[in-house]
Amino acid sequence: MNTGTGGDETLLLAGLAACFVAVALLVVAVASLSRAGSAPDWARRIDRYRASRDDDEAPGERPHPARRALAAGEWTVRSGEMEDRVAHRLDQAGMSLRPHEWVLVRVGVTLVLAVAVTLLSGAAFGGLLGALLGWLGTRAYLASRTRRRLTAFSDQLPGALALVAGSLRSGFTVSQALERLARQDLQPLGAEMSRAVAETRLGASVEDALDKVADRMVCPDLSWIVLAVRIQREVGGNLAEVIDTTVETMRERTRLRRQIRALSAEGRLTAYVLIALPVVLAALMMLMRPDYMRPLFTEPLGVLMLVAGVVALLVGWVWMSRVIKVEA
C-alpha cells in the first residue's frame, strides 16, 4: 500500500512539474504572439533580421527565461533546416508568429495534453497518446487555418478581378488597378495585394509580384491572369476582356463546386459522426469511469487493443475522406 501511494505521489509531482513547464512555455508563446501582432508589418519584417539576443542586454547578465526558451526554439528550427518551410506555412495561414515561436506553442500544447491524459489515465502510455494528440492537433489547426484562408482568397478573387477589369477600362494601368484593389477592405486578398504593391515599389515587376501571390496562395486562377498580363505586354490586346472571360469561368466553377459540396453534405456529416463517436465516447468514459478504462493503458492486451483501434480509426478516416471528396 505504501509503495503504491508513493508511486502515485511521484506521478502527481511529475505531472505538476510538467504542467508548470508547459504553462510557462504557453505564456511565453502567447506573449510573443501579442508582441508580434501589435507591431506594424514593417517592424515585424525588420525584426526577422535581428539577433536572437538583444543588444541592450548586459554581457554578464543572465538571460530571461522567456528569452532562453525563444532562443532554444530558434536554435532547434534553424538546426533542423525547416525554418523556411515553417515560415511559408505560417505565412499562408496569415499568422504573425515566427517559426521558433510556433514550435514553442506546439511544444507547450503537447506537454499540457500529455500531462492531462497521464493524470486522467494513470499510465505513462496515456501521456504518449496525449503528446501525439497535442502535436498532431496543432498541425491540424495550422492546416485548417491555412485551408480557410486559401478558400477565402479564391472566393474573393473573381470580384477583385472584375474590379481590376473595370479599372483598366477606365484608363488605369495594371499597377494602378492593383493599388486600388489593395485599398479595398478584403481579407486576405487585400493584404496579399498590398504585399504585391509593396514589392513593385521596391523594383519588382507586376507579373513577378502577382506570381509570388499565386504561389503563396496556391491559386492557379491567378497564375492564368499573370500569364494573360505577360502576353498582353508582349503582343498587345484587350486585357480587360480577357480578365472578364476568366472571371466568368471562375464563377461558373465556384457555383459548380458549391453545388457538389451541398450534394455531398450528408456523406460528410456521416463521416464526421462516425469518426468523432469513438473519440468522444472514450473521453467521456475516461472522465466518468477511469477505472474501467485503465486496463487499456496498463495491460499489454489493452494497449494492443487501443493501438489497433486507433489504426482502424485512422484508416477509416482516410477511406471516408477519399469517398466523400469530389474534385470540381
Automatic annotation (TrEMBL):
<keyword id="KW-0812">Transmembrane</keyword>
<protein>
    <submittedName>
        <fullName>Tight adherence protein B</fullName>
    </submittedName>
</protein>
<keyword id="KW-0472">Membrane</keyword>
<keyword id="KW-1003">Cell membrane</keyword>
<feature type="domain" description="Type II secretion system protein GspF">
    <location>
        <begin position="161"/>
        <end position="286"/>
    </location>
</feature>
<dbReference type="InterPro" id="IPR042094">
    <property type="entry name" value="T2SS_GspF_sf"/>
</dbReference>
<feature type="transmembrane region" description="Helical">
    <location>
        <begin position="300"/>
        <end position="320"/>
    </location>
</feature>
<feature type="transmembrane region" description="Helical">
    <location>
        <begin position="269"/>
        <end position="288"/>
    </location>
</feature>
<feature type="transmembrane region" description="Helical">
    <location>
        <begin position="103"/>
        <end position="136"/>
    </location>
</feature>
<keyword id="KW-1133">Transmembrane helix</keyword>
<dbReference type="GO" id="GO:0005886">
    <property type="term" value="C:plasma membrane"/>
</dbReference>
<dbReference type="InterPro" id="IPR018076">
    <property type="entry name" value="T2SS_GspF_dom"/>
</dbReference>
<dbReference type="Pfam" id="PF00482">
    <property type="entry name" value="T2SSF"/>
</dbReference>
